[in-house]
Amino acid sequence: MSELINNREHTAQELTERQQTLKEIIKELHAGKSVEEVKARFAEAVGGVSVAEISAMEHALMTEEGIPVSEVQRLCSVHTSIFKGSIEDIHRPSGPEEQPGHPVHTFKLENREIERLVNFKLSLHADQFQKDDSPKIIYKLLEDLSLLLDLDKHYSRKENLVFPYLERYGIFGPTKVMWGVDDSIRAAIKEAKSLLTEYNGDREQIGKALAHIMSEVNEMIFKEENILLPMALSKLTEDEWLKIARESEEIGFCLTAPEREWIPERAEEPAEALEQTEGTSGTPQGFVRFETGIISVQQLELLLNHLPVDLTFIDENDVVRYFSHGKERIFARTKAVIGRTVQNCHPPQSVHVVEKLLEDFKAGRKDVEDFWIPIKDKFVYIRYFAIRDAEGRYLGTLEFTQNIAPIRALEGQKRILSE
Amino acid sequence: MDKILHWDEPIFNLVNRYPEVKDIMVELGFHDIAKPGMLQTAGRFMTLSKGIAMKKVAMETVESTFLQHGFTIQK
Prior knowledge:
Chain A is of the alpha+beta class. Chain A has helices at residues 7-30, 35-45, 51-63, 69-89, 103-131, 135-148, 151-168, 173-197, 203-235, 238-251, 271-278, 297-306, 348-363, 405-408; strands at residues 287-290, 293-296, 310-315, 320-323, 368-375, 378-388, 394-403. Chain B is mainly alpha-helical.
């Protein structure tokens, strides 16, 4: 429901009104009024004012009003003398994104760690390597790169938690482009690792690969902090950030972790209240009558979560409708994916595979498709089933993912109970 | 009359004022700007000064390229 009540427009309007007043006051100053004369009006018209607002306003003065830059700069000292008191006096908590636990705060915290790793350790070892390509240095580089691969979690949170909300506000292009770059960075790190593991004496090749990683990672940090995060902050509501913060744990953090859970200043409402309105906690009461039995909704949910497989269901319009939530999911899923089309939940590189598969299912050319991938100690068997009704109409697709390593390892027989 | 651009103005505004800015930016190596949806979203947060910091293009290169197209960049 809260999405229907658009608070954002309201505050945006308030903001421009305030900026208008601020602008008028500055113009009065410009026309020769004294600081004392305008101070009272300022205090009355404007409660708290942020530095960002002042700079936005100064900018507007330059571009819209045509006041030359030098004039605005001359006025700067006057602004500060008026604004200084009020910015500091008025009780105004630092922006929520400055508070530990806020997703933006966490992203930036991780970026500082990534910078330290890349610009200090990795860059130092890369320099050493150019002088001395001994196994010792190679080992250090491998260690750095393995640590750096942890940024997969940082990128995954961005892609699976932040992007869905941006898409909800109609922002598609940049998210797709950024996802593509994330993937190429992941690939570059893995590539550099394998080059080092099978080192063939080509120092230059490795130097180039490392330099590429360093510049791409730094560029990504810049893009996140100067474009993506400010854009997300301007679009997403506090409730949405809260949801992102809560679901972050599921994917994990990169090289560091938020020091505490973020509780927004206004949030007196207990966590349960929020979740209940969302309909996520507290499985609804009631029973489901199937052809072959009746079970309660609670039993059904528990049953699905106890299956030793991960289930994800998308409907006939490719929208993710449900996923099971067992103890050890193989591929992280967060509640944010529910309601998203499946095309927006896959990296751009693999989207065409998904689309081809769904096309075949819809056209009735296939009913099943299987994949199997070794991932570390797991052997992941991923099966897709077209779901059809009795008439054969396509109603959606079930993704069925299972770690079959323990099953493949079975041999002989076992006929007695375990101790 | 000189066409004036500001270092810290969003690219979105600049292109709205002077559509040719987009092509000049691409020429300078800012390829992302040509991708669909970029200008309307990221372009509202991206400025020339951020762009040169990110792409490590020299400020002089940007200035002289724009100058060739009849633009002056103001700080």
